[in-house]
Structures are given as structure tokens and as C-alpha cells.
User: Fold this.
Amino acid sequence: MADLLMPSDVRSDPAQGGGPAPLPEPPSAKLVVRLFLIPLLIVAAAIGVMLLIRGCTPSDMSLSDALRELRRSGGERTGPFIGPAAKQRYLAASVLIKRLREGLDEAERIRLSGEIIDILDNHTRADEGAVQHLLLLALGRVWQIDAGQGKLDSSDALKSREAVMDALLKYMDNARPTDTQKAAILALTFWDGRPEPRRAIGVVLEKMSAKYRARDAGGRPAGEDRERDIDVRIAAAATLGHIATPDDAPVVEALRRAVGITEVGEIEVAFQAAASLARFNDPVATGMMLRLLDRKELDQIEIVDREADPKNPVRRKLDEREKERFLVNAMEAAARLVAPEVQQRIRDLAKDDPSSRVREAAAATLGKVNAHP
Assistant:
């Protein structure tokens, strides 16, 4: 029971015949700060961020401005916070991606390759968010083949591509953060049809085939190996289908072994290995591709979510967006797989899938299959 108030603790009330009530005390400085100043600062900060984002968008920034912005410092972290210039740097990296989608001539490709390598080596760090990863992907995309331009094999172009390969191989090194390695590996997927990435086949194959050495009592990666992100292996399995050929026997053998992976934490390696084999028109991929093209099968698949909380990954089912991504990616790889049952599954998706995105991708895949029987 609460203590009873003593008479001296009760204020007088004029309505009850007591003396006059005391005048109200003025609000303390602490109360003023809490009620007015702090909300004002929060609103001002929010408005400032909105103005910053609105005043510096990819559509307003030229390629020269973007390169200049990426050479400025300001992406440093203070504790858990990213520096104030990180947003501009991210937008600047996005401008590069947008410009690459519009197409470049040979001279522009050569110049931009050198600019990006310089920025990566001298003006970025791995701890400033996604800027470095976007730049690595952009570096790979610079030399993506444009059917309207041909191979672009002048001596200067060949020299530039060798420099790009040197840079990407450097950022695949095990001493780099796993996210950086993953971005450098995936950058090679844009080099489909070029010979230079063959230099990286051995490195990428080793990344995919790397096995965790130390495991705890539950069979999970332990110690130092716990930090080796499975995403590097997934990226490597996906990339091998773009840089190797069916004649690369060690690659084909490793991919076939990987298709047999059943552990939940590594099942996505099996999916990407099957996609790479499908690009080689290897019949071993057929069973897995049929699974990846079946919504009922996707409903049963569990993945380990490492993005929401990297330190505490959790097992979960695929959401709708992920199912669509799985279907679209599987169809893109299956376009080269001569398997009647797979092509029938794609025709079914083009006709009946509830997602317009999936139906459109299926129709596009069937067009490729019909064009190249």
C-alpha cells in the first residue's frame, strides 16, 4: 500500500476554504529543451536531409561531377554513423551505373576504366557503405559487349581491359572484406563473351569450392571461418557460367558437385551452380532448373537470411519478390538449356504465372529459345 500523505503535503485549495493556491512555477530549462528544442533540431535535420537528397540526384549530376564527387573524402564512419558526404558519393556512383546503361564508345570506356580504378584505389574504403561495391560493378560493366559496337579490340582497349582485370583480381583477394570480394566476382558476369576473364577462372573456382575447415558441435562454421560469407561462394558459382565454357572440365566437375549441396545454409550455391551448368547446356542442370521454375517447389525452399542481421542469420521461406527473382534468373539461364521439359515449364509460366514480371520474362526467354534452337 502506498504511504498516506501528511496534511502538510496537500496543497491548499481555495474552493475548500484554504489559503490561496501558489503561483505555477516557470518550466525548467531541461523541460524546454525536451519539449521544444530537441523536436526542432530533429525537424531541421530531416529537412536538411530531404533538401540534400533533392538537390543532388543522379538526374542533376553529370558524369564529370560524379567522378569529382567520388574523389572527395567524407564517407568516413563515426561509430555506427556514416559521414555526411556518403550520400552524395553513393549518388555519384549511381550516376556511373546510369551512364553505363546509356552506352559508351571505345574512348569513353578506356577513360572511364582508368578513372574508376583510380577512385577505387585512392578515394574509397570498404567501410563506407555500398560505394565501393557499386564502383566494382561499374568497373565490370564498362567493358560489357555491345552488339552494335563489336568487340572493340584496339591495342588501347585491350590494355584497358587487362588493367580492369588486374584491379578486379586484386579486390577478390581473401584479405578484402567478403562483400568486396563478392562485388569484384560478380563484376565479371558483365564480361560474357570476352576472353580476358579466363584469367580469373582459377580464382573464382577456388572461391566457390572453398570449404569451411573448423566447425562447432552443431556442424556450423566456427572460429575465423564463421566470418567467411557464403555469399562469396554463391557469387562465384553464378559467375563461372559467364566466364568459363563447357570445355573447362575442372569447372564443370566442380559445378556438378555443387548442384548436390543440400545444406540449407549453402543451398543457394547449388541453385547458382545449376544455373551455370544450364548456360553450358549441361543436362545435369535439368532437375534443379525444373525445381527453380516451379512455384510449389519455391514455396518449400528455405534460405538463410544474412542481410537483415548479418551477425544473427535466420532461416526463412522466400518472400514473393524473392520467388520472382528466382524464377526470372532461372529462366534467363535456362534459355541455353536444351531440355523439352524445362521449355514447357517456361511456357506454362508465360501463360499462367500470377506475376506480370515473371510472365514477361518467360515470354522473352521463349523468344531467345526460338531464335537459337
Q: What stands out?
A: The first strand starts at residue 77 and ends at 78. The chain has two domains: 48-143+152-171, 228-373. Residues 29-55 form the longest helix (27 residues). DSSP finds 16 helices and four strands in the chain.
